Amino acid sequence: MKAKTVFITGGSRGIGACAVKMFASEGYNVAFTYLKSEEKARKLATGSNILPIKADCSNSKEINHAVDLAVEKFGNIDVLINNVGIDEFSLLSDITDDMWYKMIDTNLSSAFFASRKVIKGMINQKNGVIINISSMWGEVGASCEIHYSVSKAGLIG
């Protein structure tokens, strides 16, 4: 039986790194993205079934390329975990347009781009799971994290 493949955005640290380790230990092929944590990504790549891919997930071309690399190596994507995310503490009155767009593009647009890329393969194989990692702040909001809360609420929606 062929091993299933999971693709995890933001897999080099925190929740993503834990997911990489767990899925690999369960026999999955694991492809994951990282942006700045190359050393941590390399340490996670302990076997031939783990593929770290440097990609800015807020850029649709980079996420498309990352998924293509994973499919080229492992043949398909069975599970997508949209985990990549950033946070930032700022008052609403201090959030610049650039801060807003960086948060929305990283936390929300990246999930759209990755899901759009893998969904055709999942439909063709008549199987697949997409998991969006959100936050309680997406449900209740946070006074000093408005743009973070909005991005996480979007994932829940």
Short précis:
The protein is an alpha/beta fold. 49% of the residues lie in helices and 15% in strands. Strand 4 (79-82), helix 4 (97-124) and strand 5 (129-132) form a beta-alpha-beta unit.
First-last Cα distance: 35 Å
- Give the biggest beta sheet: 5 strands, parallel
CA-based gyration radius: 16 Å
The succession of helices and strands, N to C, reads EHEHEHEHEHH
What does this structure look like?
The structure is a single chain. By secondary structure, this protein is an alpha/beta fold. 49% of the residues lie in helices and 15% in strands. It contains 6 helices and 5 strands; from the N terminus they run βαβαβαβαβαα. The chain has a 5-stranded parallel β-sheet, with helices on both faces. Strand 1, helix 1 (14-25) and strand 2 form a beta-alpha-beta unit. It is globular. The termini are far apart. The mean pLDDT is 94.
Set out the fold topology.
Elements: E1 5-8, H1 14-25, E2 29-34, H2 38-44, E3 50-54, H3 60-74, E4 79-82, H4 97-124, E5 129-132, H5 137-140, H6 146-156
Helix pairs in contact: 3-4, 4-6
Which key terms come to mind for this protein?
157 residues; alpha/beta; 5 strands; 49% helix; 15% strand
